[in-house]
Amino acid sequence: MATARARTAPFLLVLLATLLCAAAVAASSWDDDREPSRCVRRCEDWPRHQRARCVQECRREEQERERERERERGGHELGRRRGEGSGDERESEGEGEQEQERSRRPYVFGRRSFRRVVRSEQGSVRALRPFHEASKLLRGIRDYRVAVLEANPRSFIVPSHTDAHCIGYVAQGEGVVATIENGERRSYTVKEGDVFVAPAGAVTYLANTDGRRKLVIAKILHTISVPGKFQFFFGAGGKNPESILSSFSKSVQRAAYKTSSERLERLFGKQDKGIIVRASEEQVRELRRHASEGGHAPHWPLPPFGESRGPYSLLDQRPSIANRHGQLYEADARSFRDLADHDVRVSLANISAGSMSAPFYNSRSIKIAYVLDGEGHVEIVCPHLAQGGGESGRRGGRSERWSRRGEEESSEESEEEEEAGQGYRTIRARVSRGTAFVVPVGHPVVEVASRGSNLQIVCFEVQADKNDRVYLAGANNALRKLDGAAKELAFAAPAREVDEVLDAQREQGFLPGPEESEREEERQGRRGRQEREREEEEGRRGRGRREELAETFLRLATGGV
Amino acid sequence: MATARARTAPFLLVLLATLLCAAAVAASSWDDDREPSRCVRRCEDWPRHQRARCVQECRREEQERERERERERGGHELGRRRGEGSGDERESEGEGEQEQERSRRPYVFGRRSFRRVVRSEQGSVRALRPFHEASKLLRGIRDYRVAVLEANPRSFIVPSHTDAHCIGYVAQGEGVVATIENGERRSYTVKEGDVFVAPAGAVTYLANTDGRRKLVIAKILHTISVPGKFQFFFGAGGKNPESILSSFSKSVQRAAYKTSSERLERLFGKQDKGIIVRASEEQVRELRRHASEGGHAPHWPLPPFGESRGPYSLLDQRPSIANRHGQLYEADARSFRDLADHDVRVSLANISAGSMSAPFYNSRSIKIAYVLDGEGHVEIVCPHLAQGGGESGRRGGRSERWSRRGEEESSEESEEEEEAGQGYRTIRARVSRGTAFVVPVGHPVVEVASRGSNLQIVCFEVQADKNDRVYLAGANNALRKLDGAAKELAFAAPAREVDEVLDAQREQGFLPGPEESEREEERQGRRGRQEREREEEEGRRGRGRREELAETFLRLATGGV
Amino acid sequence: MATARARTAPFLLVLLATLLCAAAVAASSWDDDREPSRCVRRCEDWPRHQRARCVQECRREEQERERERERERGGHELGRRRGEGSGDERESEGEGEQEQERSRRPYVFGRRSFRRVVRSEQGSVRALRPFHEASKLLRGIRDYRVAVLEANPRSFIVPSHTDAHCIGYVAQGEGVVATIENGERRSYTVKEGDVFVAPAGAVTYLANTDGRRKLVIAKILHTISVPGKFQFFFGAGGKNPESILSSFSKSVQRAAYKTSSERLERLFGKQDKGIIVRASEEQVRELRRHASEGGHAPHWPLPPFGESRGPYSLLDQRPSIANRHGQLYEADARSFRDLADHDVRVSLANISAGSMSAPFYNSRSIKIAYVLDGEGHVEIVCPHLAQGGGESGRRGGRSERWSRRGEEESSEESEEEEEAGQGYRTIRARVSRGTAFVVPVGHPVVEVASRGSNLQIVCFEVQADKNDRVYLAGANNALRKLDGAAKELAFAAPAREVDEVLDAQREQGFLPGPEESEREEERQGRRGRQEREREEEEGRRGRGRREELAETFLRLATGGV
């Protein structure tokens, strides 16, 4: 016994040192430690070699949150430096920190990473910067942008066209969307859960027809002119938004409209309320009346290829996965023809409070996700390459901690490839309403809802064709399909032992989350009887006392997870 | 009355000041003011806030024209600096001015922007530099190049292949085009108005079979190897053009051709007349005889997909738009199968003297236009983004005048997005035979023919599939399709008033141009009776005297538009 | 006679001077002139204006070989600088030379240009750096990478997925390949000559089932996430390779697998043998047994589009070309459906010892070749543009020798286009097992096998659709299809004379190589009777004595070709 304990001592000391160090750091940083201690406490949950970093990030996150609170309390000066209250994450931080931030979490974009591109008393459109500017690792989706429209009750978004296809998801509220394509107006009502496509160049306008709720639309823009850039053109308009018509020279305007300059100036001189304007009850009624005339087109038989027929209600469909831990609703080119042009799948994941998605990856798609509601966190497993991404890559901004070998960049453009299999970096980020994140091809991800509320995420998956969602846990775990010999060789363990672990989880798609599953365990006694029996059996077959002791101690040291 | 006049005074003073300032600038710059005053005089035609710039540009344009005249009078030294008389716009200007030039009109390329890539006594091929080098805003068409072939009467362009697909339009003359594809020679006669495709890698040769006229072919090259780069390979040849065959090592040549080095050197030592050589009458006759044997293949039934069947005569088709102001002839993948591979539409716009195209934009296509004949001007309406384009973007070359807010470039690559709806910059450029211009997706454009002659423009529209030409004026004006409520809200004016303006123009596609329409008005009395009546009616309904006075004064001040 | 000789003198003097100069250079450089003299001697074989360069390159090549020999004798320090014995060509040379190297032969990559991305006692995966980093001229294939897997007898490559499609060719040995796609495991045996596709995201594992031979697989990776970058993800694994599963936080792992941390740590703590591990005889047998159950699927009827059905044996097919000089085996989307997704053709050229491929080019494809066996050399004919490529282009690294005109780079990005037809630069490179080379669209190439052994090359041709292999010599020479008049005009010679040269070679596809064909000639007497007669006939018809003398002298001077 004594010798066993002695042998475990070094390990435990290291662990304790780590935790104490973390605690010290935490204590020195915050006085109000409502959250920090909790964040730091969670770090023990991480693979051992990532714990120190976890504590560091906890600390940084808290500092940020602190700064934010400060700012909200009245320190808006900083945030306003660039003329908009909204600002941008970068404003509030030193250049150096900003760079670190970006290189550390190249795939997660907080609410403050969005920039307002349309501003109006009645609403706004906010957009993420182009992905390829955010990180070199995202240049594969440089043609796509994320944007969010918010419009006040009974407001009208004036007609415009853009040089990008728009795929929108109605996140909240209800309204009318109208497009003019090939000389035809199509006008349809939309409500929460609807997906719709407004193709590039089509004159498009919307109205929030509800009298009380905001209309919120999350969308991706598939740019077709300058990669990653989109622009709005207002045909109808006046001074604000300025009409493109009034930008032609006067003599051309007169000739084009067979009308005197005076009348034209008068017409183009009136609207100055901005892009999103307040509508009267009657106007809203008229817009809705026209829309109902067009109506929700039936989706079957399918319209001729390439023709738009109005929205597709995700939530009215059968979910492709559904259990008490969550539901997944999906629309792709097969179910919703309007998406065919864009090779995009739109899906909505509704993860029950305290539950999580089973770990999975997309075989071909890059997933662009936007959190609609709730709170939680995501974990994205990235190979080392991910560290070299972001703009800091150019200046060798990879932090020394995480780069294992000195590297010489052979050219400004190159990111050195690491040797395969040498470990991963896990991006772990809290997410809440307004967070966007990207999951690249092949990267395993897990999305965990906090206990307080459901986590709702809308996902736009580009490169959708032939994509396969590959699960790494649960009843449909792809690894269960390995040959017995492959399991033995890959895990260096008897196939039976591998199977026991891979087969234990019977649910699939959505699973009980970490806290939920632990409470459940507790309910069933500290451990399930079955598992204990199995472990005891193993114990009999030579498992030393050492591990058991270590386990017990760990539980005590960390406050009994 | 007096008070009304007093209220209009500030406005008129500003206007007068602007005009006087412009005149002063004009007067100080030129002594021979044949043209300048006219250009400057026209500036009053522009939206008020763009007038000062208009005057500036007038001035610069004139200076350029002046320099050009100088050069032509004997000052060729400058232009010859790079070994070719043709030179390039940039040569004749300081680096600074050049940068400005490019950032101001990123979409228009004068005759001198072309560079000679094939030079010969009997003709030339001139090409525009790659678009993505000209402006970042054009990187969406980086795979395409524009080139123009000119060949003397009875000349022969020796066989070659390139690493780019060639889509050609015969702008003038007649000849024979032959390609060797899949081991088959196809040889066909072409004449003015024909479109043909020579795919990448196909050995291609041409002859001008006419004894008196030049053969002129405008083409775009769709590069498939290095984006935006194309290269010629001469299989048959000698010293000039050097044959690729003679570039293999001698022993390989001997083995490949089972022939002695001496004979090979003799064969490859003869041709030294260049890429375009003079042909005998007999040779031309033989080439034409073979071509007529192959003949103009019928276009129906369609040949198997991907197979080339010779030229397609644009001018022999029914125009898709035709009135006395102009005609539009079009060929796309549906009418001309050879284009299917390239997602390109070729069209010819023939705009009558004094007329203009109705303002329109392309919903998905980027239009690459080349002026075949005539004179006129184009106006392209660009969002602010356009200012940041061009290479000068990197150094913050955006002129202070036009950037509304201080901007920090977040990375070398980034172009800051402006807020939407804050106005546009209109690129206005004179065009004449040899001018190329690009109209990006969604950008409204109008093409105006001068009174002297028809303006003929050949257009290559890339991203042709599902493109929609959206008109912003005329009977098919897309804005007429807006709901009544949408009109009211967008223009902040009664729908009836909006409709009056949008419905006044009854023609469509091509319209009377500015001068033509004004003369017409004059003919019908200073104003049409109908319109006057309407305005009077409005006047009765509360329209103040102020505007009327302003109108009258404006007309007097500007010399009676 | 005397005057004739006098007139030829200048020409001969120049020639002699060149040769003497070359010899002098050669003599001064090497003492052990086993090879050099032979290489230099061959330079006389080159077109006159390229000879001096040829000699230079001979010299440089020898120096390299010398250095390599040195290094192998014990000077490995240099090569090890970066932690791997394999190193990289660049390590052993000064930065300056390296740049030259790359700009001179942007299309050829020696064995040492590969970098190890997977390293293990039981094998390795080596990959070429991304093409667009190697040369700007190769940015058209930036989405593709070349890699080579070598696995010891009875070894197992652990399951992983990548964010790239893999198209593999089994170059040596035999084994089992298994993929898990759409929840199904497909497992098939492969042997030398098989082509197979493992799509992105599919869990894939392999085994070398042979007890004595290495398994070697040459493959291209078609990247779909970050252009030109691929990453491995190991689902099953432990410490080395680290499993992605163990990178999730502990609480997530516990919840996902419904298993205690202890058990998970135990499972993920075992495998530490690396990515390629030794398998037991029994395990190999089990893997093969499962594979044989799945079996080699029949290729007809074709499986539903997009579905993978196992390998395709190139060598079991009828070659598309076959004669005693070589055979070409091909697989494309039509014959092997798995390739359809990737627009890639895979082919194997087996060139008999001493023979060569007929000179040819691809009309649309870019060919990525990897030498499997044998020795020889390739010649690739490149327009001048090729010189500006590579990274040195940025610093104007083009050697003065070969740039004909002073050039101003208009932007950092631009490569000036040369005027067409002004000659080519021929890249000539020795190749042997492990050499990779790229032949861009339209570039003529010839591949010559040394006399010692067959030269075997596997080719991956991207942009395969509608590609045409265009031959420049042999019975199927495309130039033979030119009109008579075109021949006359292009060569400035009577069509009959052109035909005599173009028709002499009766074989096609693969031809006797330089040495072989010369020995053959010798066997038939110094010259074929027929040819001599023809030449005499020509002589009678006015051919001067001058040329004949020159010929004779040349033959004497160069040691009797």
UniProtKB/TrEMBL annotation, chains A, B, C:
Pfam families tied to this protein: Cupin_1 (PF00190)
Keywords on record: Seed storage protein, Signal, Storage protein
Listed Basic and acidic residues bias regions: 64-89, 392-408, 520-548
GO function terms (MF aspect): IgE binding; nutrient reservoir activity
Signal recorded as keyword: yes
Entry annotated with the keyword Nucleotidyltransferase: no
The protein's name: Cupin type-1 domain-containing protein
Annotated source species: Panicum virgatum (Blackwell switchgrass)
